[in-house]
Each structure stands twice: as C-alpha cells, then as structure tokens.
C-alpha cells in the first residue's frame, strides 16, 4: 500500500458574491446554529464517518517543510499567494488499500481556515460513489448537516451538485471547471474538476 502518494492543488478564490453556479457562485444567507466554524479535531469525526463508508483516513500528519504549498495554499482574487502557517494532511484509501486521495486542513496553529478533499479518478465516470461520500462527509462535519433543508443552489443534495458540475465539465470541453456556493453557514464551498492528462482530480475546498 502506498500511503505516500500525494496530490497538490492550486486554489483560486473569488471573494465577490455572484449568483450563477459554475461560472460564478451561489450566495445563501440564513441563520443556522448547527455549526460555527470547524477545528482540527474535526478530523477525528471525519475519519469515523468515512470508516463507516469503507473509506479509510490515515492519522493527520503535519507538513512543515517547503511542500506545505502542495497541500495548504491558495490564491486570492488579486492572484496573491497565501500559504497556511499550519497544515495537516491525511491519506485516503479504500478497502483494498488503494490510494484515493487526501484530506488537508490548514490555517494557523490554533484555528483552521481551509479544508481540502482531493480524489483522483482514472476517468470522468469512475469512483463517483467515493467522491460523493467524501465530499458529503466533509460538508456535514465541517459546515453543517443542513444541505437537504437549505438546498443551496437549488441542489437537493451534494450528489446532485456533483452531478451537475460533472455535466457542465463534460459539456464545456475545458481542462478545468469550477462551481462555487457561498454563504452556507458563513463558509465558501468550491468544487473543481481538472484533467491531469492521464487522470482526473476532483477537489472540494471549504473556506471559512
């Protein structure tokens, strides 16, 4: 089992609230007390929930050398690079010990500011159940268990959002596409699909 396989992501964040999914973002305003922020300790709950779905998450490891930019880095709307001072990464594997991707959480030493889930697939249609399970778990644990109630973007479920993003990606014939939802309990959600040439990288970014 190769648990050292890593995936890097360069994140572009557009902070302006717009109203169209895919090309821009969906803004949602409501008062929800289910979840206020997230912490590094939430990784334990993520691990337990994923384990019940036959997805296994390694113990988080702190990245403190120059490779931190591969795990916890983003670009803001001015294209300025931000590298998190504190970054934890965990590997994801399936029942057979095959690598699926990573979950990275970063910020300062006390409070995380971002979380990233990355899943690699051999083609655009493979591992859809895994993608849904990981992304849905990350949102439920770190943001809120309120998607079905709020239905941001008009999507009845995280699965529906992923399916719509996939359809848009296929139709666009672009190398990379992005869908955003802003304001879900004060968080931004960014879903990216990118072709790496011989595989596809599915990325969910949660930003406080």
Question: What descriptors fit this protein?
Answer:
alpha+beta, nine-stranded mixed sheet
How would you explain this protein's 3D organization?
The chain has 208 residues and is of the alpha+beta class. It has one domain (11-207). It contains five helices and twelve strands. The chain has helices at 42-51, 68-71, 128-142, 147-150, 158-172, and strands at residues 11-12, 25-27, 56-57, 61-62, 73-75, 81-83, 86-93, 99-107, 112-121, 176-184, 187-195, 200-207. The strands form two sheets. Strands 2, 3, 4, 7, 8, 9, 10, 11 and 12 form a nine-stranded mixed β-sheet that branches. A three-stranded mixed β-sheet has the order 1-5-6. The longest helix is centred in the middle third of the chain and has 15 residues, at 128-142. It is globular, with a radius of gyration of 16 Å.
TL;DR?
By secondary structure, this protein is α+β, with helices and mostly antiparallel strands.
* Main structural class: alpha+beta
* Rg (CA only): 16 Å
Mean pLDDT score = 84
For the biggest sheet, the summary is: 9 strands, mixed
Show unreliable segments. Answer: 1-21, 23-34
Structural domain count = 1
| Gap between N and C termini | 34 Å
**How many strand units?**
12
Number of helices: 5
Helix content: 10-25%
SSE order: EEHEEHEEEEEHHHEEE
Proportion of residues in β-strands: 25-35%
Molecular shape:
globular
Topology summary:
Layout: E1 11-12, E2 25-27, H1 42-51, E3 56-57, E4 61-62, H2 68-71, E5 73-75, E6 81-83, E7 86-93, E8 99-107, E9 112-121, H3 128-142, H4 147-150, H5 158-172, E10 176-184, E11 187-195, E12 200-207
Parallel strand pairs: 1-5, 2-10
Antiparallel strand pairs: 3-7, 4-7, 5-6, 7-8, 8-9, 9-12, 10-11, 11-12
């Amino acid at each position: 089992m190769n648990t050292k396989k890593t995936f890097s992501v360069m994140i572009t964040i557009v902070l302006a609230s717009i109203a169209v999914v895919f090309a821009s973002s969906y803004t949602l305003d409501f008062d929800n007390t289910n979840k206020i922020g997230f912490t590094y300790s939430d990784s334990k709950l993520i691990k337990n929930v994923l384990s019940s779905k036959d997805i296994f998450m390694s113990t988080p490891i702190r990245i403190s050398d120059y490779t931190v930019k591969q795990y916890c880095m983003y670009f803001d709307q001015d294209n300025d690079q931000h590298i998190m001072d504190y970054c934890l990464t965990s590997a994801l594997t399936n029942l057979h010990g095959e690598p699926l991707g990573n979950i990275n959480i970063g910020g300062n030493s006390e409070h995380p500011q971002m979380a990233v889930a990355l899943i690699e697939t051999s083609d655009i249609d493979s591992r859809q159940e895994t993608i849904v399970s990981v992304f849905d778990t990350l949102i439920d644990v770190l943001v809120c268990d309120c998607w079905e109630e709020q239905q941001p973007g008009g999507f009845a479920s995280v699965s529906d959002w992923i399916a719509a993003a996939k359809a848009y990606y296929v139709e666009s014939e672009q190398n990379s596409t992005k869908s955003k939802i802003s304001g879900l309990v004060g968080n931004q959600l960014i879903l990216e699909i990118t072709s790496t040439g011989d595989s596809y990288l599915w990325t969910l970014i949660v930003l406080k």
